[in-house]
Amino acid sequence: MARINLLPWREDRRKLRQNEFYAILGAATLAGLLVFGAIWYQHKLWIDGQIARNSYLRTEISALDEKIKEIEALEKTRSQLLARKAVIEQLQASRSKMVHLFDDLVRTIPEGVKLVSIKQEGEQLTLNGVAESNARVSTYMRNLEASEWVSNPQLAIVEARGGDARSRYAFTLRVDLRKPPAEGETAPGAPASEPAQGASP
User: Fold this and answer.
1) Domain end residue (candidates: 108, 128, 160)
2) Which of 1, 23, 110, 191 is the most buried (most CB within 10 A)?
3) Is the pLDDT confidence value at 35 over 90?
4) Could you tell me if residue 201 is inside a domain?
């Protein structure tokens, strides 16, 4: 005898498939959320790592900036010390130079010439004095030309004044300071050695 199933099997199958679809959809959604969460977490790790690196770099850059400032301050101090050292050396050299210069000026003054004042401007001296005659002034200029400490004497002013024979002429000379020659060298402006007797002209 045939058996007839009177239960609503089509509706049961539809519900079963519907449940399977929802299960697959839920599983896919969960998988998608897991993948999204993994990607988000990985990106967060990358961002946090980059932020940490940036913070480390900023810290190191700040430390380097401080060191650079210290180096610049040391360089400035070094430059100041070198400048002071150069000034001190220049003063030491000038002190010795002025002693020799005044000694040379006294040595080159001929009889009948007297200096009234000496003024220095840079590497030039202005000599004001009086002389008995123009010839005495010319002799003084020749002596200065042969000096190791001054050169290029130039007569700026010479004028007659008063009746005193010892100071009949007032003059102003300008001379350039120069470095004395090294030992064994010929002084600039010094007369050259005379040719041997009997040499052909």
Assistant:
1) 108
2) 110
3) yes
4) no
- Beta bridge partners, 124, equal 121, 176
Residue 85 sits in the same domain as residue 166? no
Q: Report pLDDT digits (tens) over 124-177.
A: 889 898 888 888 888 988 988 888 888 888 888 888 776 666 667 888 988 888
SS3 5: coil
Residue 8 DSSP one-character state:
-
Burial of 38-66, coded b for 16+ CB within 10 Å and e otherwise, reads eeeeeeeeeeeeeeeeeeeeeeeeeeeee
- Residue 148 carries which side chain, given as an amino acid letter? E
Q: What is the 3-state secondary structure (H, E, C) of 71-132?
A: HHHHHHHHHHHHHHHHHHHHHHHHHHHHHHHHHHHHHHCCCCEEEEEEEEECCEEEEEEEEC
In a shared domain, residues 19 and 87: yes
What confidence tier does 198 reach under pLDDT thresholds 50, 70, 90? very low
Closest CA to 186 of 139, 146, 126: 146
Contact 114, 156 (CB under 8 A): no
Total structural domains within the chain: 2
| Residue 118 CB partners (closer than 8 Å, separation 6+) | 105, 125, 126, 127, 128
169-177 and 150-160 strand pairing: antiparallel
Choose the final residue of a domain: 85, 108, 131.
Answer: 108
Whole-angstrom Cα distance, residue 61 to residue 70?
14
Question: SS3 for 178?
Answer: coil
